[in-house]
Amino acid sequence: MSRLRLLSAAALLTLAANASASSFIMTTDSIVGALKATSDASSDATSSLRDNKVVRAARDDAASFVASEGAIRGVKLESALAQIRQQAPQLNTATDAQLAQAILAI
Q: What percent of the chain has pLDDT over 90?
């Protein structure tokens, strides 16, 4: 009788381990998929902005803005910020400082 209980317990443990592993794999796959979609959207937005002449021309103004902690706002930077927000609506929640730093990083 105890042998039957041991076999039953082993079978239940095996089933539980398989269920946990498949649940972990599904969760991991969904997280990785979401991160990839976000990364692809950011990459598309960044590559289109990298090729934008207005954004590239605003690098000096962006550097002044970042260095002065927002006190110096150049005309080229203002134009670039407006264009970024128009072309990439997903970046509308970013602050001017974050966008200026992104311009410097491009």
A: 32
